[in-house]
Amino acid sequence: MSAPVIVIGSGIGGLVTALALAPRRVALVTKAAPGGETSTFWAQGGIAAALGDDDSAALHLEDTLAAGDGLCDRQAAEAIIAGAAEAIGFLQRHGVAFDRDGDGRLARGLEAAHARRRILHAGGDATGAAVICALTRAVAETPSITVMPDTEVRRLIAADGAVCGLVAAGNGETLTIPASRVVIATGGLGGLYEISTNPPGNFGQGVMLAARAGALLADMEFIQFHPTALAADLRPLPLISEAVRGEGAVLVNEKGERFLAATPGGELAPRDVVARAIAAQIARGGRVYLDARQALGRGFPARFPAIAGICTKAGINPAEELIPVRPAEHYAMGGIAVDQRARTSVTGLWAVGECAATGLHGANRLASNSLLEAAVTGLAAARDIAGLADAPGRPLPSACLPRPARIGIVRDIVSRELGVLRTGAGLRRSIEALLALVEAEEAASDPALVALSIAVFAHRREESRGAHARSDFPLKKPHSARQAMTLSQTLAAAHALCHTPCRRSA
Ligand SMILES: Cc1cc2nc3c(=O)[nH]c(=O)nc-3n(C[C@H](O)[C@H](O)[C@H](O)COP(=O)(O)OP(=O)(O)OC[C@H]3O[C@@H](n4cnc5c(N)ncnc54)[C@H](O)[C@@H]3O)c2cc1C
Questions:
Q1: Residue of 127, 150, 196, 370 to test ligand 1 pocket, by largest number of atoms within 8 Å of CB
Q2: CA-to-CA distance for 326 and 225, rounded, in angstroms?
Q3: Is the pLDDT assigned to residue 506 strictly greater than 60?
């Protein structure tokens, strides 16, 4: 019998991969309960899929490339967008009931920077919850999948450029698991930021695992800040989906001015444009609100039941009152560099979902392209793994369990220096501080390593493009390319910048 494939993480990426591998044996290792602590659960808007009669993959590609601001990998984007129908069919077969219109066709919503209504949703604005409920049920009913809940993977073990196992903490024990096929599906890195829409425990552990195993990382400087998180004293910050603006809600400041009225696209301009405009209002001491009173009014709770519930909990009636909003870290465009089969640069290691950098998003993600990307790449990884012969087992080198990560000190640095608007001096300060934390090899070393990658990539990008904005380089360069580096290269770049000798390679 084949050794099980290890899938790490139970958001949409991990669940789709595990289900698509059936009947091949899978061990689904996940930090909380299946589907728990996932960004997937919180997804509101839906999944972009060009399935309408007025739409096409070419139009969806055009919008994706425009949002990506010159840095998308066109071929990767074409392949992912072309995979939409298969991915939606897979989700439906596994129990996801997308909303339908009065004629029984799939209902399609509009979101920022999409030229067509193409956002499929479920339960109104509870798409992610619907996906998690259906797929976790399907996993529970699939005998080939063994779920290992409450188990946190802290290191991959690799030898000669190939994965051979992992070390995890589960139920108070250290688990050393041999494995020659590992799929990382650990989601985003919002936990590195004080203000984020992501579950706080997701701080890019998969990126760290892959980097320490020698994998290439790509596009780490591109972090998307969602313009309209609810400005409340909550962590993570709940999101007021773009779809609300898609239905006509407008942004106003404390004086009631529509400060985006003259911006091309207005409230539905690309996310980075809207986030920077809101951040500028807040930086001058102002406040920003979403006004849905005219566009939706009493219809708000019916169209957006989950968001209406969030507002009610915060004491706001969105049908009659303004909703206070602010930007919050939301999505990492970069991560572990993968090809179209979701393979990383390390043999036996795949990455799917938000932790992977496929090249689809370029410098900025088009809204609702991420659930699509996670589902399509999950299917691609499963197909690739299923086509491979079993790898021979290897003796496992000894490995110890690192201590649980300490994030607080890293979060302070990241929130101060790696936000919506960056400066060369701030990036340099963050690199010095983070490099010391990485090399101290204490409990902050793992999150510091992910943050250091963001800072080094951002420092090397001397321009403003997509989600990456620098006050000292406010313009786009005429020629620009994606960046990719291993951890050794990132550390060498950091040392060169700090004028300190490299202490070790990784
Ligand atoms: C509030 C919100 C709204 C969003 N709305 C949309 C939307 O409408 N449309 C859209 O396309 N995208 C949306 N996104 C983005 C999208 O939800 C995510 O990009 C996507 O769900 C990521 O899926 P994933 O499977 O990669 O990761 P996740 O769903 O985040 O799952 C990660 C999994 O990995 C586990 N994990 C992490 N580290 C470890 C470890 N070391 N060991 C074991 N397990 C680990 C976690 O516990 C979790 O199970 C939204 C995101 C947020 C936060």
A1: 370
A2: 10
A3: no
